[in-house]
Design goal:
single chain, alpha/beta, globular, binds flavin-adenine dinucleotide, MTHF_reductase_bac, Methylenetetrahydrofolate reductase, NAD
Length: 291
């Protein structure tokens, strides 16, 4: 029964990691640091900090990662995109991270600054994430995570060519893939099994987005090719004015997805926290991950 593991006692066999974004204001920074303090006792394997669209948060990402290094025992992973930058610029950022003690990079291509604009590489830059991975490995022996898309990336012609792209990133030196969010455990598990046939032993970690606001999620999903099932809309119908009820539904839903993944053998979960601790904390608790 897929539900049993959810409510089992702490099992000690689950790893988690948390993703944050760099705050824009002092108030947002305070929320982020409260969330980090709340989640830190769960001993995540790493915490990652995103890089704004088109590299727009270069300084803020760096500052957030450095503060994690300085003020916590957590292992940071810095997201880095190659869109709109030369190889030299990227290599310098990577070098600075290495010197600051950062050993893990989430290496991404990124998207063009204008929504919907077709991707075109910088003439002096890395053309895609696979090239970026190879470039980073040449700078220093970073641990590298890359993005994976169980439902395919919008730029890919087919599931097969999308998988080939992931294989190129792995062959360039990536240690692990973290997926875009999804709502079907079967879809992830099939994707994982296909990958395992092609590259046995490579780690693939599901990215879990606890959804408490369908409209916001739809906006993210439009940009990244994740499908929002119709039942998700129905599930949140009538809850617009009931934020606490929405949170409970969100935790239940994500908890159930994680339970199904656990039953399918998944032992590492990556949470898109949106800088809020409560949902990720509650779901970890259900999974038996305790302080
Ligand atoms: P790539 O792997 O380079 O490629 C994306 C797609 O383009 C491929 O699936 C493939 O279909 C096609 N493609 C690439 N190369 C080729 C080729 N040679 N031939 C044919 N087709 C090709 N964005 C940010 O801006 N900042 C972040 O911090 C950030 N963090 C993310 C974290 C995770 C876990 C995920 C899943 C995504 C994240 N993104 C982030 C979004 C990401 O930048 C976008 O999805 C972007 O459109 C693709 O990046 P990628 O690294 O997957 O690109």
């Amino acid at each position: 029964n897929g539900h049993a593991p959810l409510f089992a006692e702490a099992r000690g066999d689950i790893n988690v990691s948390f993703e944050f974004f760099p705050p824009r204001t002092d108030a947002m920074a305070e929320t982020l640091w409260r969330s980090i303090e709340t989640l830190a006792p769960l001993k995540p394997r790493f915490v990652s900090v995103t890089y704004g669209a088109g590299g727009s948060t270069r300084e803020r990402t760096h500052a957030t990662v450095e503060r994690i290094v300085r003020e916590t025992d957590l292992t940071p992973a810095a997201h880095l995109t190659c869109v709109g930058a030369t190889r030299d610029e990227i290599d310098e950022i990577a070098c600075n991270y290495w010197e600051a003690g950062v050993r893990h990079i989430v290496a991404l291509r990124g998207d063009m600054p204008e929504p919907g604009q077709a991707y075109s590489p910088h003439p002096g830059g890395y053309a895609n994430a696979a090239e970026l991975v190879a470039g980073l490995k040449a700078v220093a022996p970073f641990e590298i995570s890359v993005a994976a898309y169980p439902e395919g990336h919008p730029d890919s012609d087919s599931a097969e060519s999308d998988l080939d792209n992931l294989l190129r990133k792995i062959d360039a030196g990536a240690d692990r893939a973290i997926t875009q969010f999804f709502f079907s455990a079967d879809c992830f598990l099939r994707y994982r099994d296909t990958l395992a046939e092609r590259r046995p032993g490579i780690e693939i970690v599901p990215g879990i987005l606890p959804v408490s606001n369908v409209a916001t999620t739809r906006r993210f999903a439009g940009q990244c090719g994740a499908a929002i099932p119709q039942w998700l809309d129905r599930l949140f119908e009538g809850l617009d004015e009931l934020p606490a009820a929405r949170q409970l539904v969100a935790a239940t839903l994500a908890g159930e997805l994680c339970g199904q993944l656990y039953a399918g053998g998944v032992r590492h979960f990556h949470f898109y926290t949106l800088n809020r601790a409560e949902l990720a904390y509650a779901i970890c608790h259900l999974l038996g991950v305790r302080a």
